């Protein structure tokens, strides 16, 4: 078995790679496509999850960031900047460190999961908190990057989309063709844009088919579904707490061209899917990720997704990113036993081993 070399080398024929592009990598990509055996049986569809939480910094952002940072380096940039609900900042900080670039991340005050903040700090980024939300932060960094010598690495940077489209290639390679449906969380709408681009490029070259693209926003941040900017977006899924998605038009195009949909799911539906996925299938993904599985359930119930369909749900980030939501969702009440083997045995025989 040969060693996985990371996205830039593995997919260079599909990426804007030149002789001068540094072969930057943390060996991102090549994430597993896991079949959900129990839930598939119960729901009457064949479900796979693309577990992007196994990327080097624990989210799909690594795919886009390796490309964006490599190109920034190639172009002679000395520093990168991004606004982030957390995962982009972790990825930018890691790849910035790896490439020897300064990294500045701008995050919304008090609304970023603990693990993500820990990562940005450990990777040595300068962390700036804004008294505002992600949309406000993005406005500011976009303006600053226009006048200052610092490269913007949010998904409005086209190299981010190029890197992220590789996940679609991996899904098609694993299944032998495109699935019937791709279900994906939508925040700033970069990732749905990237997947659709990836599926189309692969189809053009290899005739592998196209899925229906089904994107899911959180109810309190469902700007695209409602057709208006949400000034004060709110959701438990802080990663997708975004009220004015930068790639709004491209998400709508993906939906229309693929005969798919952009829908929303409630926080309750997200948390239910979050817990079900971990407890029934052993897959721990962060809340925003679970908007895809929650959306699938909703659209099976509505009849929009047909029984027997092959569906891939993108799980965008690792559950360990957000330990607080896990602990708040499940009541942790350990059974207290005396320090005595007999007491343990009689407790286990009362349920677990009998
Ligand atoms: N899931 C997770 C875990 C995310 O972190 C994000 C976006 C999304 C889904 C939505 O992807 O924005 O391409 O539609 N996180 C960005 C960030 C905004 O700053 O980390 P999208």
UniProtKB/TrEMBL annotation:
Pathway(s) the chain acts in: Amino-acid biosynthesis; L-threonine biosynthesis; L-threonine from L-aspartate: step 5/5
Cofactor(s) annotated in UniProt: pyridoxal 5'-phosphate
Keywords from the UniProt entry: Amino-acid biosynthesis, Lyase, Pyridoxal phosphate, Threonine biosynthesis
CDD domains named among the record's database cross-references: Thr-synth_1
GO MF, one example: threonine synthase activity
Catalysed reactions listed for this entry: O-phospho-L-homoserine + H2O = L-threonine + phosphate
EC number, UniProt record: 4.2.3.1
Entry's family note: Belongs to the threonine synthase family.
Protein name: Threonine synthase
Gene: thrC
């Amino acid at each position: 078995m040969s060693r996985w070399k990371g996205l830039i080398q593995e997919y260079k024929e599909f990426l804007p790679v030149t002789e001068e592009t540094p072969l930057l990598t943390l060996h991102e990509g090549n994430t597993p496509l896991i079949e959900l055996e129990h839930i598939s049986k119960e729901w009457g569809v064949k479900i796979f999850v693309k577990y992007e939480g196994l990327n080097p910094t624990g989210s799909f952002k690594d795919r886009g960031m390796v490309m964006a940072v490599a190109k920034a380096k190639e172009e002679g940039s000395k520093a990168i900047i991004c606004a982030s609900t957390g995962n982009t900042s972790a990825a930018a900080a890691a790849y910035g460190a790896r490439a020897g670039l300064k990294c500045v991340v701008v995050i919304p005050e008090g609304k970023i999961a603990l693990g993500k903040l820990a990562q940005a700090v450990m990777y040595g980024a300068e962390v700036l908190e804004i008294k505002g939300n992600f949309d406000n932060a993005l406005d500011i960094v976009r303006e600053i990057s226009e006048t200052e010598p610092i490269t913007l690495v949010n998904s409005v940077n086209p190299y981010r989309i190029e890197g992220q489209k590789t996940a679609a290639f991996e899904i098609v390679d694993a299944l032998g063709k495109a699935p019937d449906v791709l279900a994906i969380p939508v925040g700033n709408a970069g990732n749905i844009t990237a997947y659709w681009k990836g599926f189309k490029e692969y189809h053009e070259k290899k005739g592998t088919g196209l899925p229906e693209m089904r994107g899911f926003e959180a109810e309190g941040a469902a700007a695209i579904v409602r057709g208006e900017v949400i000034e004060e977006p709110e959701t438990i899924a802080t990663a997708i707490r975004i009220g004015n998605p930068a790639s709004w038009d491209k998400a709508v195009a993906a939906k229309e061209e693929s005969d798919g949909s952009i829908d929303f799911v409630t926080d309750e539906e997200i948390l239910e899917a979050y817990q079900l996925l971990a407890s029934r299938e052993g897959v721990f993904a962060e809340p925003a990720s679970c908007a895809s599985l929650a959306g699938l359930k909703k659209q099976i119930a509505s009849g929009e997704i047909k029984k027997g369909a092959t569906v891939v749900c993108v799980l965008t980030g690792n559950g360990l990113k957000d330990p607080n939501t896990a602990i708040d969702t499940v009541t942790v009440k350990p059974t207290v036993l005396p320090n005595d083997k007999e007491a343990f045995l009689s407790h286990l025989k009362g349920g677990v081993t009998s």
